[in-house]
Every structure is written in structure tokens, then in C-alpha cells.
Design brief:
It is a single chain. The protein is an all-alpha fold and about 450 residues long. The protein contains 20 helices and 2 strands. A hairpin with an 8-residue loop joins β1 (about 260) and β2. It starts with 5 loop residues before the first helix and ends with a helix. The model has no long low-confidence stretch (mean pLDDT about 85).
Amino acid sequence: MTDTCNGAQKLRRILVSHVTRAYDLDCMNHLRNVWFGGVEKSLTKHLNEILRSSLDEIDSNLRVSSSISAIIRAIDKEFSLSANYPKGHGELFKVWMKKNYPMALLFHVERAAGSRQDLCTEGCLAIFMNYPYYVEFLDGMLRKITSNNQQKSILQQNLFVILTSNEMLALAHLLSILHLSICMPFCYLAGKTHEFAKYNWGAATMSRVIDTLHFALKEIKEDASLILDPLYMMNIFKEYRDQLPPFKEYWELTFKKKQMQVIACQDGTKVVHFARLLKYLFDPKRLTDKETNERVIELAGVAVSAFICELLDQKKATWKYLSISGSNYCWKNSTAERTAALIGVPATNDEAESVLGGTTANIQRYGRINLSSAAAISDVKRNKYLTRTTKNKEHRGLFHDIDEAIQECIVSIAIKDAPRTRQQHIVELEQQATAQRLKKR
């Protein structure tokens, strides 16, 4: 299993050709990200066209964009309660919320670091639910009289312009619906596939899920108003909830039981936040939300058309999983042998991605740490090599099962070989960088 880049797919084909009875497939998380990446590009292009005159009138110094990913990153910088961005006001906003709206439900701002393409849907939940508070806070901040001719925050001006635009709120409205109805259930099925062997469900079955998605998208393309129909949108994958009891439990937990505290955390008051989100999306009470419905339907037509194009693009990885492709990867043509072999097999390459993610996190945490050291820390932590048995943890790390004399020997050799190992890694990184430069010539 690999991601969808050409190099990885070529390597995978070579490996499969040399291994008897080997079956290959693509990471379903990567496929999903590619779909939503294409949807975001089409929506950005469409909004740029209809808002061209308005965007031309806005001061270019404000860096206003119709790209939802750019907006989500700006929201993260300004309103994240972790207050990681020096020019943001997350901590001040938190104090303001507790003072003015102590019982309000404030959705968490999505972390915008990295390059996840499904950020464009997940990050919209906070924008859609929180924008009235954001706008009021920004209005108060921008009205303040500053001393010594201090300039107003460009980030705050940028967000005020965006969050008072009906078109951008309609975009957040649409992408929030797509996140709940498509992204979340597909992500769950892909991530839990290896646990559903007893239901005769395997990695090959995900191609059937893609067929279901394709059929639903075609219906929405014919009648874009379906995007605002909760009975249709929230039941696109209902047949799989009926087939998989854990999926049904997850769905009910998410939308009927799972709770989140209101902004005044010490009060202890909680609400079923996803249930409230559903109500706001499909049965809006706020006047601004009602006014965006027509634009949501318009943007839905653009998004769904782009979605279908991503699925039907024969140059991309998804095409071969559709039954209309007639390939051996699709559900219609999947052999009994292939289907059986992939039962209990993960449908994502999360294990490989977690190695990279752990290494990246250590580089960000420790700054100038050597790449090999960052990877080693991640590897030791993930595999729990050094875990000690405690009252709450029964797991004992592999290192502690080794004889103490051998433990000392391992540590001594590691210390002795460390300088030579680091030097070898430096040489290898230089060779890699040289090869990359030559390739770009």
C-alpha cells in the first residue's frame, strides 16, 4: 500500500510483480484528500470569478483570498486558544468570550499546520459555528483607538472582511455539510476496515464504498438542493451503518451522545455539539445562514462536479476502484481470492504516516535536532520500547525484557557508535540533496 504519487505507485507495481500472490491498493485517506483538494481548487476558482470586482476593490495589503485553506490558517492564527501565533489574539478572545458569552458553545479551531487537503472541510466547522462571535470580537478590536498612530492588525482586518461576506460564509456552510456527510464516515470506514473482519469486510470493500459515493454525487449533481436535505446527505452511507454495528455505534455516539463543554468550562455545562451543528446546518435560525442557502446550492453544483471529475479522472488513482472502470481493483470485478486476502488488512497507510508525523513533531519540538535522532525518538515512543510497568500500565517495553548486562552493552555500543552513525547520516543526506538538485536541472 502506498499513497497516490506516481513514484510510490511505480515502486509498488515493481514490488508486486516480484512477489507471488501479492495484492496492492492505495491508501484511502490519500484518495480522500485528493478529492477534496480538487473540490477546493474548483470552488476557489468559481468564487474568484464571481467576486472579481469586489476583490479588486479591497486593499491588496489585507491579503484577502477566497481560498478556504488560507482562511482557516488565518482563523487558526487569530483565534486559536493555544495562542501559538505571536500576532494572534487567542488568549484575549478566550477572556472576551468568558465575559460576554459564558454559556456559548465555541467549536475548537482546527490546527492548520501541515498540508492536509481535507483541512478545507474540517476547519470550516469552527468558522460556520463561531463566526458571529469572531465578527463581534474583531469589530470591537478594530474600533479601538490606538496611540502613536499604531496600525490596525492586518490579520484582523483580513478576517473581518472575509467573515462579513455572505459568499465566504456559504462556502463554510457547504464544506461543513460535506465534512459531516462524506469526509467523516469515509474516514471512519477507511481507518477501521482492518477491525471488521468478522463482518466479512476488508480493504477491497472500500471500492464498494467509493461506488456508493459516486452514485450519491451524481444524484446531487442532478438536484443540487439535496445538499440541504439532512435525510439524504446524512444517509449516503446508511447501508454500511446497517451492515457494521460499530459504525452505527460511532454514528450515534457522534451525533446523539458525544458532548463538549461550553466556554465557561468551570461550570461543567455540556452540550451535544455535533447535534447542534447539524441543526444549524440544515435548519438554520440565524438570518445570515438563511440568506446563504441559495449560494450554498450554487456552490454545491460546482463542488459536486469537481468531485465527480476527480473520481472519473482516469489518470488518477481513484478511477480504477470504480466499477465503471472494469479494473480488477473495483468491487464489481474483485475476485473472491482478492477479497478474502484483504479482509483484516488496513485500508490506509497510517502506520507509515505516523512514523513521518512523529519525526516531524520532534523536529518542530527540538529545533536543530538531527533527523536520525528525531526518527529514533519517534520509533522508541511508538513501539513503547522503554515503557515501564505501572499500576495503570501493564505493558512492559521490549528493552526491559532484556538481561541487564545486555542492556548495558546496547547502551555502551550506541554511545560509541553515535558519532560515526551521525556522520554517515550526514553523508547520505548530502547524497540525497545532490541527486535532487541534479534531477531538477
